[in-house]
Write a structure and sequence with these properties.
Elements lengths: L12 H4 L1 H10 L7 E3 L6 E5 L6 E11 L11 H17 L3 E12 L5 H16 L4 E9 L4 E10 L14 E5 L4 H10 L6 H8 L7 H8 L3 E5 L3 H12 L2 E4 L8 H10 L3 H7 L5 E6 L1 H7 L2 E7 L3 E4 L15
Parallel strand pairs: 4-5, 9-12
Antiparallel strand pairs: 1-2, 2-3, 3-6, 4-6, 7-10, 7-11, 8-10, 9-11
């Protein structure tokens, strides 16, 4: 095993960043023979049951911290439950898979109302039920800060779709909403509650879960869940696949609610679409005919090279995804 001190982990976490830490940690992790796909994608793929006869299982986990990922004065407990479950269900969909079970850990202060915890669980269970999944267990521990950790377990009917399969000549295609949750966060951050439709989109995203397995069956070469923003997440695909990706502005229509938020806040509404996360849309690369077959919206092209551009130029970086304050 490599020495973690020699992988860049000596910097503090603020300087290293989320993805720098993942890279540093991954550099000294040893994967066993039953790990079919390790760190670096929306989910891992492991074989359980031993040997060639074992069952392949997708697994992903995500944490949400009050004040960082949700606020109780902005969202009901059921809303929070839907959001945290959706983040994990969408990760497995982005691999071409379907979730079977969720395991949930709750770290909460002792004065958290019991009813809030029950409503949270109801929201998670209702969201899981939309894909036929169940909550099968977890853990509860006392903590000064409310923190939720959800692990999803599932499987693919066929081969998994990773971030690393995009090929020059593929098209980039999208399914699901983009920019709505970001617009809702922007509105709430300024003390407003309208347009209500974007506030509700922030509270309860509507990921296109079924489209992940459908895209895999249609021939998607790479896929990712849009949680950090379209351009940021396409950046992960570009790096993993060793390709360049160009996004075309004209391929996006801006819905009226996003236009209204843009006008009210003095921001370009297209930036909400290109940079906003947490709607959990899916973006994938396909041979062009496969994208048409899947019914996804083509928004760009894959070429030789590296990085992500918009209309052939570096993207504006004035609307990076925000966190709560």
């Amino acid at each position: 095993m490599a020495d973690p001190q020699r992988t860049g982990a000596s910097a503090d976490l603020a300087a290293l960043g989320e993805f720098g830490l993942i890279d540093a940690v991954s550099a000294f992790l040893t994967q066993g023979s039953d790990v079919l796909l390790g760190p670096g994608d929306d989910a891992a793929l492991v074989r359980v049951g031993g040997g060639a006869d074992g069952r392949e299982v997708l697994v992903s986990t995500d944490a949400a911290v009050e004040g960082r990922h949700f606020r109780r004065d902005w969202s009901s407990a059921e809303d929070v439950g839907h959001r945290v479950a959706a983040a994990n269900l969408s990760d497995l969909a982005a691999m071409g898979g379907t979730t079977t079970a969720l395991v949930v850990a709750i770290a909460a202060p002792g004065d958290l109302p019991t009813q809030w915890a029950l409503d949270l669980t109801r929201g998670m269970a209702d969201e899981a039920a939309t894909v036929g999944a169940s909550i099968v267990g977890g853990d509860v521990v006392e903590s000064d800060r409310l923190t939720l950790a959800v692990t999803a377990l599932g499987a693919c009917a066929g081969a998994v779709v990773t971030r690393g399969g995009a090929r020059p000549g593929d098209v980039v295609a999208l399914v699901g909403r983009l920019g709505w949750a970001e617009a809702g966060l922007s509105v709430l951050s300024r003390g407003f509650r309208s347009p209500r439709v974007v506030v509700e989109a922030h509270r309860r995203p509507e990921p296109p879960y079924a489209e992940g397995p459908a895209a895999a069956a249609a021939g998607a070469t790479a896929m990712i869940d849009v949680s950090d923003g379209l351009l940021a997440d396409l950046g992960h695909v570009a790096v993993a696949s060793g390709v360049a990706i160009d996004v075309t502005r004209a391929s996006f229509s801006v819905p009226e609610p996003l236009q209204a938020v843009g006008a009210a806040l003095g921001v370009n509404p297209l930036n909400l679409i290109l940079h906003g996360g947490e709607d959990h849309a899916l973006v994938a690369t396909f041979p062009e005919e496969a994208a048409v077959q899947a019914g996804w919206t083509v928004v760009g092209q894959v070429a030789e090279g590296e990085g992500v551009t918009v209309d052939g130029a570096p993207p504006e970086d004035d609307a990076a995804p925000r966190h709560y304050r």
